């Protein structure tokens, strides 16, 4: 064997051996987004955190791309509307998704109060306590904030900060719970006759939720009015008419650029000139109460009289590429309210359309809200500086969790670990997991992860290595012979490699192809960052009048 061939062989082995030795190590946490039991024996919809000990306190939260830290409501300062002002009352607890009481937690530790965190510019009381997620992952002594005022009635419960500098994603990543700073969110629905649980996946997404069809992928966008950086364009909105036909409500209006804020409890927030043709086609009449706007549940959305009624569906087109259908049952329903015992009820004499109107001169950027994601799926990957909105299937099936592994540049399936039910509320006296029952107080490695049921012995490993090296040698010899032939034939002039079409800023791909079940490498075509400026940051104020 010539020295040149030996050098070629060694070079070839060094080149391809990392491909054989590199391992995709996907890790993710899959949590339900649904109604959870509270200490007041009522329920609130959200992501469950069990906080403190020995008796854990159930708190529900909403994923929020606005904040980078996590903000809860406390038992001493619930800042509820005046009719529920008594702290820790059942209606106030339901409205806030549970009220955290520091005084009854033996694991809570104080941190410096009234610290303004750089990324959020929010004044709050900060504390640390043990957090247990619904998949039994534990975050020991995790720092979070207790609000000192209410500035955002659009989101009434606590918020998990998932912004570009999210401390929650950072902690999960450092603890090896997840293999990427990413998350996905599907809200499900509670307003339909048959409710549907939502899904909140950290470190990846649930492939089983994604329907076949076109999705929209885009890099984050810097805009002072959209701190989230998740911006799309609504290019059409159509409604079914009474004669069964479809009418474009916005045919005489310009495309509407919107900020995606999944933490708000509505389908969308739009200027009045975009609402008026919707109301005209529906033939509905706004209720006189508060100028036809909801006060607490689905804040500021539109209230209408029960008659005349509209029975059609709505279709919204994003970036002229993807259509999301809103069925009538999610478009119009009885107005939701919290009764004196803390239970959510629906009225029969007033109906609700979860669309909020922006009055002229308000200055608010139009938005897509959380209820839009009852029929679409939001996937955010901070490591790739991009987000995706995908169509969803009509009915939930067994989860197929896919994780982004940023370190190894791959996407791969993992074993889905979805809790079978909500943990017992703190009022029943449930205690912290003990070492004897298999729980780990520092459960950073107990997240949903790819696992193998058996290990290979030394002989098997040696055989595999020998087989791989033999295969490599054969491939190398074949490649060398081909290389020699091409060299003798001489280079051909004026030949250029054939490249695919350039990738546009907004990529429209078939969801079933983009998120294939088999692992594949992540592309780099949009691997650049857009820094968001600091304008438009919220400041805590007392009262109910402010909003972000």
Automatic annotation (TrEMBL):
Organism: Setomelanomma holmii
Residue spans of biased composition, Low complexity class: 419-451
The keyword Chloroplast appears for this protein: no
Keywords: Membrane, Signal, Transmembrane, Transmembrane helix
Name of the protein described by the UniProt record: Peptidase A1 domain-containing protein
Transmembrane segments: 456-483
Span list, region Disordered: 419-456
Alphabetical list of PANTHER family matching this protein: GLYCOPROTEIN 38 (PTHR16861), SH3 DOMAIN PROTEIN (AFU_ORTHOLOGUE AFUA_1G13610) (PTHR16861:SF4)
Keyword Transmembrane helix attached: yes
Signal peptide: 1-21
Domain of life from the UniProt record: Eukaryota
